[in-house]
Amino acid sequence: MASSLKVIALISGGKDSLFSILHCLANGHAVVALANLYPPPTPDDDDLNSYMYQTVGHAVIPLYEEALGIPLYREEIRGSAANSSRDYTAQEDDETESLVPLLKRIKEAHPEANAVSTGAIFSTYQRTRVESVAVRLGLTPLSYLWQYPYLPPYTQSSLLCDMEAVGQDARIIKVASGGLDDGFLWANVADSRTVARMKKALARFSEDGDGALVGEGGEFETLAVDGPSLLWRKRIEVEPDRVVHQSGGTAIWHGKNAHVVDKPLESFKLEDLRRPPLFDDEFLDILRADMDTSAGVISLPPDLAHHTAPPTNNCAKTQNAFVYSNITGETAPGLASEVKAQMANIFLRLDHALAAYDISKQDIVHCTLLLRRMSDFASANDIYSQYFDYTNPPARATVAVGDCMPNPLDVTLSVFAEKDSDRKGLHVQSQSYWAPANIGPYSQAISTMLPPRDRSAVNGTEDLHAAGRIVHIAGQIPLVPASMKLFTPSLNTILEEDSFKGEAVLALQHLFRIGRTQGVKWWTAGLAMLPSIPSAKEQEKRVLLAQALWKAIHAPPSPTEDQSAAEEELDAWDLKNLLPTFQDTSRRPAIPHRNSILSSSSSPADPPPTPPCFVADISALPRAANIEWLATGLAASSIAVRQSDYPLTHFTQPDPQTASCAARFCAREI
Length: 670
What we know:
Layout: E1 6-10, H1 15-26, E2 30-38, H2 64-68, E3 72-76, H3 99-109, E4 115-117, H4 124-136, E5 140-142, H5 157-166, E6 169-175, H6 192-202, E7 220-226, E8 234-245, E9 251-262, H7 281-288, E10 314-317, E11 321-327, H8 339-356, E12 364-371, H9 377-387, E13 395-400, E14 411-418, E15 424-426, E16 445-449, H10 461-466, E17 469-473, E18 479-480, E19 485-486, H11 499-517, E20 522-531, H12 536-553, H13 559-568, H14 572-577, E21 597-599, E22 613-618, E23 628-635, E24 639-641
Parallel strand pairs: 1-2, 1-4, 2-3, 4-5, 12-13, 20-22, 21-24
Antiparallel strand pairs: 6-7, 6-9, 8-9, 10-11, 11-14, 12-14, 15-16, 16-17, 17-23, 18-19, 20-23
Helix pairs in contact: 7-11, 8-9, 11-12
Pfam families: Diphthami_syn_2 (PF01902), Ribonuc_L-PSP (PF01042)
EC number: 6.3.1.14
GO molecular function: diphthine-ammonia ligase activity; hydrolase activity
């Protein structure tokens, strides 16, 4: 991926779309054009009330070209919210498609443009729609503010504080919340005094983590009029005209005679813009801590012998679950063509099996793709992406296994599907500070309903949902989310002498951040994939370190930390009735969520056992990464864990009689 992108900045005039431009610049990109969609003319109201676009204050938008010194392109919004689903699939009459002609026109004028930025924070609705259009047009989506309040220091106000610190001035021009009245209109939203007033006003009307303080629930809308001179060459002045009151307590500030004026230059530098730290607090702690790796490894398995028999191919189905493992693509027994042909044959066989079991490919939740050589990945992925061409494709793990792959095979595929299970997906394709973007035919996570223990006792849909969900998460390698580059020693300012530890911790953090968004409270197990290295001794160290990190992140909190967490967990009735103070802290549920775990240990006070951690020695990973973490999570109100499920063995060497057999192929199956 290019280190410096040429960005088209989608702007609404609001605080977030303008602030995100600064983050594009801070990450080494150049903004070549501004893009804006405006509502069709109406007799008396300039607010379209679009689900997708902010249209209040759109008359001021033309001034941004002069204020920022960046060419502006505009297009009228056509259509309506014809597709109102959370995750977007292209629909011709939907207002989202208005972006297509706009971005195409900009690409014609600026052929170097290869990315598009947005100010999305929590809105999956907006993000997925921009991503859909961007990917279709070959543009890299950038959403540097995505999940911003859930990054250190974990407060909603941190975004507004960061705006104030760089001198961005964005005025509130619409309020639509029971907590905010017209007294807030034309106040600078990032001013510390305004933030304090909003916290007090929103205390009774917002819920924990709903983004009310940053306006993510439509509580207010803003118009940016000034900012640091590195971006803002001039500032915008608007004279007050009138305030229009609408139903439901909505009030809109209208201005007149908007114009740009010169402004003094200040000493702001991009280095002054705060960017969220790479590591969460708890992962920074284990990165700095000494890990207990004293258990030892018996010895790593010897080099694998070449296989002459193909891996065992299994196809099985229960009432809802379907597993088809080690699908191969030979043209005839013992004969195989090039990788693309093998992939095409694999999907033909998969289609036949799905049809036989009355299962749709949209029911597939996870795939494991095994390659002989990682250099074949692009060829295999080309056919793979043509097959999984729908919204929220399956989560996926891809590894190369070298000569463990029996001749003449170059690729195998294993799939896991669940039918009629309320399938939900997380497919973030935008670069951000949060977690690696998945620009490709796989999702970060796919979740489905867990089957109830006793189906005969199920009484309607509500009981089905009460059983909880199983969350399949894609393999995570140590990519720095903002740049999508691999973590390197130069980026590891904490432990420069131990880059692998930084890589392992960062990839594990990605797994947990994704898991939190899906409500994961417990991992069934962890799997670390480590490419082989020449030194067996160093590989043993990596195996033990990976398992030690897994154990450390699952360790129970110290008594002090536990007491602090208990004090923060306020009763919902108290929050609503006794404590009318705004909860600024973005709560990040712990994994494991110990209040949800029912352990069969001898004492209820004892912590539940750590889920097992397996380590697989493989040939290579995507992007030449040194580790990939995999896990399946459970999201339920209560989870029973039996101590006997977790043997005490720290590391188990394969039986010498089976160490070189096809059973060493690793596919995540349940």
